[in-house]
Amino acid sequence: MHVSIIGSGYVGTTIAACLADLGHEVVNVEIDEGIVETINAGEAPIHESGLEERIAEHGGSSLRATTDYADVRETDVTFLCLPTPQAEDGSLELAPMRAGAESLGRALAEKDDDHLVVVKSTVLPGTTEEVVGPLLEAESGTQVGDGIELAMNPEFLRMGTAVQDFLEPDKVVVGTTSEGAAATLRELYDPILSREETDLVETDVREAELIKYANNAFLASKVSLVNELGNVAKAYGADAYEVLEAVGLDDRISSQFMRSGLGWGGSCFPKDVDALRAGAREQGYDPELLDAVVAVNDAQPRRLVDLLENYVSLEGARIAVLGLSFKPGTDDIRKSRALDVLDYLLERGARPVAYDPVAVENVREKHPGLEVEYADSAAAALEGADGAVVATDWPEFDDLAFDGMAQRIVVDGRRVDIDRDALEVYEGLTW
Ligand SMILES: NC(=O)c1ccc[n+]([C@@H]2O[C@H](COP(=O)([O-])OP(=O)(O)OC[C@H]3O[C@@H](n4cnc5c(N)ncnc54)[C@H](O)[C@@H]3O)[C@@H](O)[C@H]2O)c1
Ligand SMILES: O=c1ccn([C@@H]2O[C@H](COP(=O)(O)OP(=O)(O)O[C@H]3O[C@H](CO)[C@@H](O)[C@H](O)[C@H]3O)[C@@H](O)[C@H]2O)c(=O)[nH]1
User: Fold this and answer.
1) What is the SS3 assignment for 151?
2) End-to-end CA distance of the chain, in Å?
3) From first to last of its 431 residues, what are the pLDDT tens digits of the chain?
4) How far is Cα 269 from Cα 273, in angstroms, rounded to an integer?
5) From 268, 312, 339, 375, active-site residue
6) Gap from CA of 121 to ligand 1 centroid (Å)
7) Which whole-number Å values give the CA distances from 270 to 30, 84, 116, 219, 306, in the listed order?
8) Which of 11, 96, 326, 389 is the most exposed place for a label (fewest CB within 10 A)?
9) Is 397 in the pocket of ligand 2 (CB under 6 A)?
10) 11 lines ligand 2 (CB under 6 A)
11) How far is the C-alpha of 382 from the C-alpha of 402, rounded, in Å?
């Protein structure tokens, strides 16, 4: 099939490379010329396991990037993989989606045969049919249902395992307005849908849009609940990890997303939970439980610093901060809990020395004013430190020696497997 993908960021690049690998002819339309050149040179613009080799094989041939929307006319299906960031007030910012839909509509004005437009971005119920559809119609002069078909197909991949998640998902959700659109997507995804482990969910557009938010809200709520239970466990002097491991043996609950600690960050959970809360309020519903989910998450970094302050007088203290990325396996620092930890440490007069295997450059670049010293290794960060906190569960922290610290005091926000016997004080945030 001939497929075009608008936006070559995290999701667009991954699915473009994977669809090319599944045998489709793919055109990636992206406004960033640097990304376009990188892909056409056969290189990956982002770091993801399994991506480099796929782009090396198909980039510049069956996977072609361009800044020109006119190239979508060579294709039968277009996926919109545009950003849906947060506005200042936490609500969903639709400007990039609107701009992309308008450009696509203008390009489709000069196309004779039918075209399927699939919204892949995470958008609130109503966006596909009430915002994207009318913009396509206005710019192309073609009506949805009569020349343009619309579908919504949310994406559930995670950073760090994006390629595998896309190719081997638990489910593919397809919200469509016509049987023709559903049939096209079934054909496109056939190699993925033939897997026994992958369920196909065919539904209406509005439900497909909400499934994505409900999925993320559920997972974020689960982590906030385990953090609440972890905080209670700690108050009782019990080990939350032992408790939750046993709880997870219940099939109805499952053992996944049971790691209590500093809480959730990243480019998805925070913005999607906020957009859902804002959207629900706009619809006249007060989402009190989701408000509490956010409040529990927001409190964890301060709790970690409070705990450290029980052992170290923070004014002027050198504190090693181990980990900056929002989770291991990525250099993404968006809404990383580690950044909140740094803010609280600075607020209390500490001198943080931060280390991360891959994310230091990102912090330097995106938070240039932060008065933090950066170390080249965990050992260098720990050298002479009056205390340390673990903010990201990078596997390399399991093997740390703490010889060089002025005081071997560690407060762990992620339950890494460090040698606690080598320490004077070891405290877990929730255990
Ligand atoms: N990152 C994830 O793990 C993930 C997973 C599932 C769903 N999502 C959702 O998918 C969507 C895309 O997320 P992402 O992480 O890939 O975003 P991203 O910011 O990494 O990428 C978006 C890309 O679109 C490009 N772009 C912006 N405006 C454009 C335009 N008018 N025309 C062409 N290109 C344009 C940008 O230059 C950028 O490269 C969001 O709605 C997000 O919530 C993300
Ligand atoms: O038991 C757990 C599991 C996760 N986290 C934290 O939760 C955040 C999110 O982790 P994860 O879900 O693994 O990463 P993302 O790449 O943000 O993926 C989420 O967000 C994507 C974008 O919407 C979705 O596509 C994915 O399905 C969804 O898992 C991170 O800060 C983790 O440290 C915990 O604290 N405890």
Assistant:
1) strand
2) 52
3) 999 999 999 999 999 999 999 999 999 999 999 999 999 999 999 888 899 999 999 998 999 999 999 999 999 999 999 999 999 888 999 999 999 999 999 999 999 999 999 999 999 999 999 999 999 999 999 999 999 999 999 999 999 899 999 999 999 999 999 999 999 999 999 999 999 999 999 999 999 999 999 999 999 999 999 999 999 999 999 999 999 999 999 999 999 999 999 999 999 999 999 999 999 999 999 999 999 999 999 999 999 999 999 999 999 999 999 999 999 988 889 999 999 999 999 999 999 999 999 999 999 999 999 999 999 999 999 999 999 999 999 999 998 988 899 999 999 999 999 999 989 999 999 99
4) 6
5) 268
6) 7
7) 25, 12, 31, 11, 23
8) 96
9) no
10) no
11) 7
Cα-to-centroid distance, 421 and ligand 2 (Å): 31
Catalytic status, residue 268: yes
Token pair listed for 312: 């170290």
Residue located via tokens 């320490």: 423
Please write down the long-range contacts of 276-283, taking CB distance under 8 Å and 24 or more positions apart. Answer: 276/124, 276/213, 276/217, 277/90, 278/89, 278/90, 278/91, 278/92, 279/91, 279/92, 279/124, 279/125, 279/213, 282/91
Are 354 and 324 spatial neighbours (Cβ–Cβ below 8 Å)? yes
Alpha-carbon gap, residue 393 to 104, rounded angstroms: 41
pTM: 0.96
Domains and CATH numbers, the chain: 2-203 (3.40.50.720), 241-431 (3.40.50.720)
Q: Which of 166, 228, 327, 431 has most ligand 2 atoms within 8 Å of its beta carbon, as the pocket-test mutant?
A: 327
Pocket lining for ligand 1, CB < 6 angstroms? 6-12, 29-32, 35, 81-84, 96, 99-100, 103, 121-122, 155, 157, 159, 267-268
Q: How buried is residue 250: exposed, middle or buried, by Cβ count under 10 Å (0-12/13-18/19+)?
A: exposed
Calpha distance 354→276 (Å, rounded): 33
| Residues 391 and 265: beta-carbon distance below 8 Å | no
